[in-house]
């Protein structure tokens, strides 16, 4: 008589490939969770540093505020893009 059936905790194959795939899936999910946690702790709640404004962005803001007129804006834009 056999000590246990294939799925009853005996020395058989158990769940085979599907059981191994299930175990690997859990390992991957746990690893991803640890990576996300480590990344969030590394940031310490800080947001990303503000990016530097390009010269064209500054020019557009000055034009929007009315500091320069359209002709001056177009001339400076041409100078920046050339």
What's the layout of helices and strands?
Blueprint lengths: L15 H28 L11 H11 L4 H12 L1
Helix pairs in contact: 2-3
Task: Provide a descriptive summary of the structure in words.
This protein is mainly alpha-helical and 82 residues long. The protein has a domain at 53-81. It has helices spanning 16-43, 55-65, 70-81. Helix 2 (55-65) packs antiparallel against helix 3. The longest helix has 28 residues, at 16-43. Keywords: Membrane, Transmembrane, Transmembrane helix. Pfam families: SHOCT (PF09851). The chain crosses the membrane at residues 12-38. This is Putative membrane protein. Residues 55-81 form the SHOCT domain.
User: Roughly how many Å is the radius of gyration?
Assistant: 31 Å
Spans with pLDDT under 50 lasting ≥5 residues? none
Task: State the secondary-structure class.
Answer: mainly alpha
End-to-end separation: 88 Å
